[in-house]
Amino acid sequence: MFAATCVLVSHAFPIALGEGTPEPLQALTGETLGGHAVIIFFILSGLLIARSYDRGQNLKRFALARAARLYPALIVVTVLTVLAGAFFTTLPLAQYLAAPQTLTYVPRNLSLAFLQYPLPGVFEANPLPRSINGSLWTLFYEVVCYGMVVVVGMAGLLRRRLAFTATFVALTLAYLASQQWQPDAGAAVRLKLLLVLGFPFALGSLAYVWRDHVVLDPRIAAVLWVLPFLGHGTVLQSFTIVVPLGYTIACLGFLPGGRVLAYNRLGDYSYGTYLYAFPVQQAAAYLFPGTGPLGNILIALPVTLVLAALSWHLIEERALASIRSANRASAAPRLAQTADHP
Q1: Global pTM?
Q2: SS3 of 342, please?
C-alpha cells in the first residue's frame, strides 16, 4: 500500500507539470520514486507468487487465482474510465461513444499486451495530455513473470535450491548486461523492461526458495544500504539498490508485530490504489488547472483511497472468495476419498 501511494506521489509531478518534469529520487538514484515502488511490487510478487504455486502445485488453480486477482478490478476500472470519459471529453456524447478509440479502450487494455492510453477528446489539454491510465503498462510484465513461475515450478526448480540459484545468477547477469542497452522500440524495449522487472521478481522468488535460511535483521538491512553508495554511477547502480530494497521490504513485512498488524484487517487496497490513481490524478489536473504536484496529491489521494476500498470490498475480495470456495468444493471429493481409503 505504501508502494502504491508512492506511485501516486511520483506521477503527480508529470501529471501536474508535464512530461519530463523531474520526479522524486530521479536525479539521486537514476530512477523515480514510482519506479522504485514498482520494483517493490515485483519483489513482493516474486515471493508470494512463488509460494502460491509451490503450495498448490496445480496449474489450473494457480491460473484461476491469478486471473481472479488481476482481472475483475481491471475490467471495472477500464469500463468506469470509459464512462467517466463521457463527462470529460470535448466531443459530443454520440461522437465520443461511437469513436473507434472509445470502443477499443476496454478490450485493448484487458489484453495487457496492446495497451491504449488515450480516449477521444479526454484530457487533451492537460499538462500530460491524452494519457488516461499510464500505470497499466506493468501488468503485462507481471503476467509474464507469473508464466516464468509456472515454468520453473513445473521444472521442479522451486524445490531444487541450487538449480534455482544457478538460474537466478544467469538472469542477474543478463539484467546487469541490459543496464547498458538502450533499445529504441518494439520487442527489444519489452525485453529490456522484462529484464528490469524480472530481476526483482526473481529476487523475491529466491527469498522464498531459501526462506528457512534467510535471517531478517534490521542491522543487516542498514549495512546493505551502503551498497548503493558504492555502486552509484556504475553499471551496478540499480543492482545495489534492488538488493537492499528487497531485504528491507522483507524485514518490514515479516518482523513487525502487535498493533501495527491491525491494518491488515482493513483489506488489501494496494491494487485498487494502483489502478485508480492515474485517472483520478488526471481528472484532478483537468478540474483544477494550475494545481501543482502537492495539490494534485492532496486532491487525488483521498478520492483514490475511497475507490480502492470500494474496489476491494465490492469486487476483488469477492472474486478471490469465489475462487477459494470453488477450490474447497473441488477438493472435498478427494478428501472424502482419502478418508475412506487411508
Answers
A1: 0.92
A2: coil
